[in-house]
# Entry
Amino acid sequence: MKKLLTVLLACAMLLGLAACGGDNGGQQANNGGGTDGEKKETLVMATNAEFPPYEYWENNAIVGIDAEVAAAIADKLGMELRIDDMAFDSTLVALQSGQADIVMAGMTVTPDRQENVNFSEPYAEGHQVIIVTEDSEIASSDDLAGKKIGVQQNTTGDIYTTDDFGDEAIQRFNRGADAVMALSNGSVQAVVIDLEPAKAFVAANEGLKILETEYATEEYAIAINKNDTELLDKVNAALQELKDDGTLQQIVDRYIPAE
Ligand code: GLN
# Structure
């Protein structure tokens, strides 16, 4: 760790931070650079691009609400955006070790996470919902007692259901899509996950439905390293402008059609 920091520091001093991003196996997307000679500083966003419509791969690029909002913020900051795709679990680790500047991953603000990182002002409302099979007897969260519940590891769905129903009731998956597959093949009886990806997963798999009664309401925000208060201020200012001029809503509307 110390060695890594020293290397990073040396790198920063020698080349200027912009050149020190480091490569991680080509799993990255870029919003294109400026053409005006001067190399822009890079804003590195960590995410888990398996969370439609917030972030997902399409034609070899990471797209979605978070990807576009991050690009708009980077633009306002005069920076070039790079998106690094990793396990949801790893995003905050990347942030805390300085490998990423921001995390945008449909990430819910929670008190535990706030102990380790700062969050921007919220930019979206999130909802934890319950997916069941169409013929399921489960009609609300009360019926989840005694059932096997699938979740994506370390998400708020995991945290809340573990609190409510105990560790033994929970089966954790690396990807939300895997939890949904387990529901389809009967190894879990319900999946608790965020509403928008739930809609995408249910649309892609026959025989599943989302219960009307939701499990929890929460807020998504951008996570930033506690030491980086200057970036936090800049991101909040940029986000406010994107809210005020309607850009944020336009991006959301492109990905979440009104019902
Ligand atoms: N909103 C959930 C959380 O923050 C899930 C996020 C995700 O899976 N990308 O825990």
